[in-house]
Amino acid sequence: MDNFSYNYTQIRKTLNTNAKKYHLLEFILAELAKRMIERLDYIKLMPKIVLDCGSGLSFDSKLLKDIYPKSHLIVLDSSIELLKLTAYDNKPSVIDKLFKKAGKTFAINADAYSLPIKNQSVDFVYSNQLLPYLSDLVSFFKEVRRVTTIGGAFFVSGLGVDSFKELRELGLSTFRFPDMHDIGDMLIEVGFTNPVVDTEHITLEYDKLSTLLEDIRIISCGSSNDKSLYKYLGKDVYMMIKSKLNQPIKLTLEIFVAHGWKDKNIFDLPEGHQVITFNR
Q1: Over the chain, what HEC string results?
Q2: 48 and 151 in contact (C-beta within 8 Å)?
Q3: Mind listing the pLDDT tens digit for each residue in 60-113?
Q4: What's the rounded mean pLDDT across residues 215-237?
Q5: Res 130 pLDDT > 50
Q6: Distances in Å between the alpha carbon of 40 and those of 238, 240, 262, 268?
Q7: What is the pTM of this model?
Q8: Is-contact 157 129, C-beta < 8 A?
Q9: CA–CA separation, 158 vs 131, rounded Å?
Q10: How many other CB atoms are found less than 10 A from the CB of residue 75?
Q11: Per-residue model confidence (pLDDT) at position 243
Q12: What is residue 37's predicted lDDT score, i.e. its pLDDT?
């Protein structure tokens, strides 16, 4: 994750600017949401409160409501424009009111590093593909652990090292993606137990290089790259790259999914301090 100087103001600005174009990526965003939600079969949990951190276009949120209709759902994103687009009617039906079956949905515009949520108040934290927009994953994981209840779970996905490898082979700049094994180590480091990390590869095919690059721009890849990694893609360079490509143009996504549990409190002490246990 070196050579990065994330500019979160720029990331938020780009996401807000591109929000109305996100529907062009529905084919892959909906598929990623579906695949991640299917993995919830392995997590036996009946949460009272669910947090969807980095909710985007709410493909995941709507599926989460189907799985946990009685749970209160918090959808959180740093892009106010995405939240405006994904607002949907959450009024329970008359039957739901009578039997008190429907949970409420709350939308929050906030930074993932500083969740405006009190300690140990969320039973299940869910985050699908937020990690590529974060440089300090350990800090984010610590913040998630802070808001998670004892006995609660954290379910997270991201892009691994093989993602966009075809673009790098062409000399283009992309995110620096983490190794899936490092994710499990980070979860243990911040205090989550029994972490499980799995991975799969998805190959997208494009007829045109211009369409591929436009999709990359929409999801704001590159907004967080250090300026030293920026490369101007002039017409001559574009045509040279295009001439090297076979049809269809392939793009690899390595998707890792991880989950862990919070089974006890951990106190973060200043550097040089340690906990002393007294036995009576």
Answers
A1: CCCECCCHHHHHHHHHHHHHHHHHHHHHHHHHHHHHHHHHHHCCCCCCEEEEECCCCCHHHHHHHHHCCCCEEEEEECCHHHHHHCCCCCCCCHHHHHHCCCCCEEEEECCCCCCCCCCCCEEEEEEECCHHHCCCHHHHHHHHHHHEEEEEEEEEEEECCCCCHHHHHCCCCCCCCCCHHHHHHHHHHHCCEEEEEEEEEEEEEECCHHHHHHHHHHCCCCCCECHHHCCCCCHHHHHHHHHHCCCCEEEEEEEEEEEEECCCCCCCCCCCCCCCCCCC
A2: no
A3: 999 999 999 999 999 999 999 999 988 654 555 544 554 456 689 999 999 999
A4: 65
A5: yes
A6: 42, 45, 17, 30
A7: 0.84
A8: yes
A9: 5
A10: 27
A11: 76
A12: 95
CA–CA distance, 172 with 227 (Å, rounded to integer): 13
Q: What confidence score (pLDDT) does residue 99 get? A: 47
pLDDT band at 36 (very low <50, low <70, confident <90, very high): very high
CA R_g for the chain: 20
| Rounded Cα distance, 219 and 14, in Å | 9
Residue with tokens 């108040």: 121
Tokens for 23, please give them: 């529907």
The residue type of 250 is K
